[in-house]
Specification:
CATH architecture of the largest domain: Beta Barrel
Number of domains: 3
CATH superfamily of the largest domain: Acid Proteases
Distance between the termini: 23 Å
Number of strands: 25
Amino acid sequence: MTGRDGTKGNNRRRMSIVGGAVGAFAAAAAMATGSAVTAAPAKADIDALLDPIIQPIITSLSDALVGFDPAAAADLTSWTDSLLASLNSLDVTAALPSAAEPAAALAAADPAASSYTLPLTVLGGTEPTVQASIDGTSNTLLVDTGSSGLVIPWESLGSNDFSAFFNLLSLGLPANFGESGYSGGVDYLYLVYNNVPVDYGDGLTTSGPTDVAVFSWPTAAGSPSSFEQFLSDDSSTGILGIGENTGGPGTSPFESLGGVTIDISNPAAGTGSLIVGGDNPFTGTATLSGAPSVVSWVSVDGAAPQQVINDLDSGGATGALPQSLFTTSEYNSTTDLVNPGTTISVYADQAETDLLYSYTVSADNDPFVVSGSDMDSGIEPYLLGPINMSYSPAGTGTTIFDY
């Protein structure tokens, strides 16, 4: 869900600031550029940092509880104050920050197993999702090759706010914390936990890391008011980031299993599979360096192809294309949407000998036209055939088109 400068659908850029105790100027600079900033907070700063994050949650829960049991509300506040005070003993200078989270530990899964097949459903024609049980609570996760890491709001840890809050506290102290966000949506503060059991089905279970968003705010007028609302607009409760060469801030939960394949075998019905681990189950027709960001050549209505960096972003909804590819007659300058009937062809080479995918724009899949020189594919290439993404080489990855 990277590379979107507009606000339609889910085309979002992930930004991260790891290790939250940074100066205001450095934080603002990082948020503007999407770069990572790291700084270790002093021991006493952890209480000061987490207190404004946790207290709004406590206030909301206490206000709801006081009408039923004033004593319980007081106990909740007192208990939380004690917890925050105890954080001063945490030696965060030794533990924080880490520029990248470790790969998820496989709890019940066997790393040597050939593969795990997870049912995949495309909601609304643009949102590929899988089901997972996170710390015992059922969640619908947006499968996003354009980001890295499992991210959920704290509310997704339980069936209601009370159970979710106490489940969050039961996880103990976080291993890390940071700030992140998506363009066109919300920014949020998150805590990193390495002990959250996640059951994806078919025998695949991981234990972390999981980024839990505990405080969020809209990025612009008209944006969702919270991370939870941001996700509910897509009928999902979390984001399963499975890319390799993305902005982070985490790593794919499936990093140690070698790779993933998105196979939307029935686009009309919006169903298919997320195949985790094992060798590519299909016969590759084109192999590119990078996963999801690759070098591509794009032709609009048969014009000479131009080179772009293409983010093959399954979570990018209908995608975004740079304005330099178009003439003014090929897109609507008022809505910044590509006109229906326009043909977009994406090649692996300038000579147009290796066609990766091609489609004709309609009112249902019209991408945005944006400034800059990069593009976001959106879900379109995944609707046209299987795509395999390998986590090798580390930090770069490899993408194999299987059609």
